[in-house]
Specification:
2 helices; 2 strands; 84 residues; two-stranded antiparallel ribbon; alpha+beta
Amino acid sequence: MQYKNMRLIHIDWDGPFILAELNTITDNEIDYGIYQVYGSHNVYGSNTLLYIGKADRQTIGKRISQEQWWWNYKRSKQPTNLLW
């Protein structure tokens, strides 16, 4: 088997974080990459993967602050303990 244009991607994974901690993920040198959101789902239960996102042109903290889909998920309850 022959490989062409192979690229190695190294990921350092931190977390989980709660919503109140997300504003700390703003280091312009290192805080870029892929993030996951876990929470409750009506069908799949608690601690379920709800979303996978990517922050490549802005820090993860900045990108997540722009996401508002979780407020629409359950308008009657503002999530306070979603894991990121």
